[in-house]
Structure to design on (133 residues):
């Protein structure tokens, strides 16, 4: 995998920190929470997409696709956080409560579990590959 530079690593950590602060603040009903989470998610996803894998190992390529799926879910969680603060989708209240209200938490949880699994397994596979050489 392509290693990130020091600046890119700092941006990745900053994005992750903003995501944690934004999601935590949203749980305490802070109206500014999506405005902190969304830039953090964009930074985090952008830096993760900069990490490319150019090898031919099928397992790592599959895990990388899982990681990209979790990145998309992080961005979807940001969109749902904005939808949760106000009814900008223009749907009826009962439909809003049924389909949108606080569903960002479920999407964020799924994304976090996928991210944790993929990053752990990628590190394990890269270590195993390095031992083979």
């Amino acid at each position: 995998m392509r290693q990130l530079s020091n600046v890119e690593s700092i941006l990745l950590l900053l994005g992750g920190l903003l995501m944690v602060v934004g999601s935590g603040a949203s749980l305490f009903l802070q109206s500014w929470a999506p405005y902190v989470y969304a830039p953090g998610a964009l930074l985090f996803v952008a830096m993760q997409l900069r990490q490319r894998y150019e090898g031919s190992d099928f397992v790592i390529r599959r895990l990388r696709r899982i990681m990209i799926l979790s990145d998309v879910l992080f961005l979807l969680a940001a969109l749902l956080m904005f939808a949760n603060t106000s009814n900008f989708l223009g749907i009826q209240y009962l439909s809003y409560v049924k389909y949108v209200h606080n569903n960002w938490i479920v999407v964020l949880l799924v994304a976090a579990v996928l991210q944790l699994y993929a990053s752990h397994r990628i590190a394990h596979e890269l270590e195993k590959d390095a031992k083979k050489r």
Notes: Residues 34 and 56 are 38 Å apart (CA to CA). The longest helix spans residues 104-132.
